[in-house]
Amino acid sequence: MSDPSRLARRSLLTGGAVLGAGALAAACTSNAPKEDAAATQNVASGGDNDKPGAKVTIGFSAPAADHGWIAAIAKNAAAQARRYSDVTFQAVQPTNDINQQISAVESLIAKKVNALVILPNEGKQLNQVARKAADAGIPVVNLDRVFPDKLSYRTWIGGDNYGMGVAAGHYIGRKLKAGNASNPVILEIQGIATLPLTQERSKGFADALATYGYKVTARQDAKFTVESGNQVAGNLLQAHKKIDAIWNHDDDQGVGVLAAIKQAGRKDLFMVGGAGSANAMREIKAGGVLEATVTYSPTMASSAVRIARLIAQNKGMADLVEQEVPQSITLASETVTRDNVDRYLPLGFES
């Protein structure tokens, strides 16, 4: 992800148009109660592959839903599975404890499920148990945080972390360049600094800014939580009396970041968010400090369940010529602004 020549790439989620259309339709036409509608808004249907086939059991493991994006991951996965009469969905207790997640996945292996969808707390630490599943003949769909050993998973699906940074860097770089900014103060608030996905986001951001002759002035991580976002932002605001722009990696922690900015009464800056939460999009629509967010959609969980079902049933993807599901699928990172926010708002998750 470190090659600057990749700045212009645009990754493609196969069937993304179908996914988006299905999600929009669900959001606009559902007669379900509000909570149920939110849980099912990011599901999709399409093609003969959706016709009932061999009955399969799909196991699912993810971290605890301690913030909006992870909560949306779990809801989307379960909602997608409910669409299929041939799928039994077995979700284990979500946890942020590595050893507990390993034990939970081992329980699914012991039950001999037909496929596994795993969003690991940390890819390296869960790699061994994923490999155990693969060696037992259970295909693993690795969601988001990647296992380092490709033999540990059949297919990986996730967001374009480098592309997120690139998108944020281009938005900030273009705006500052248009304003003839010289030596601007650009701050970056990461999620968890030790995660490879965070490092890829930072690399993309730095590479994009460099094309405008800019660089990050200060960087600090905020652990993906509202509380840490508020504390980190407050410290950065005190340390920098002049700020031109902030890129915040995560819209969940962005709730705290925005609160700190508003409390400090700072109007000398603009901010770009990350992931595409509904509350961030509402802030963008209202106008103010938050001008944009770059997507990292939890719809990937819906797609992961669909992919696991196809693999377990020995099917390929209907829109592809190839007979089998691809080894990796990367979602495109899209920039949401006031100009296009109404189109993306139905797909936003609640922080």
From TrEMBL:
Residues 58-315 form the Periplasmic binding protein domain. It is found in: Cell envelope. It comes from the Bacteria. Its main location: other. Keywords: Signal. It holds the Pfam family Peripla_BP_4. Gene3D superfamilies: 3.40.50.2300. InterPro entries: Peripla_BP_I (IPR028082), SBP_2_dom (IPR025997), TAT_signal (IPR006311). Residues 1-26 form the signal peptide. Belongs to the bacterial solute-binding protein 2 family. PANTHER family: D-ALLOSE-BINDING PERIPLASMIC PROTEIN-RELATED. This is Substrate-binding domain-containing protein.
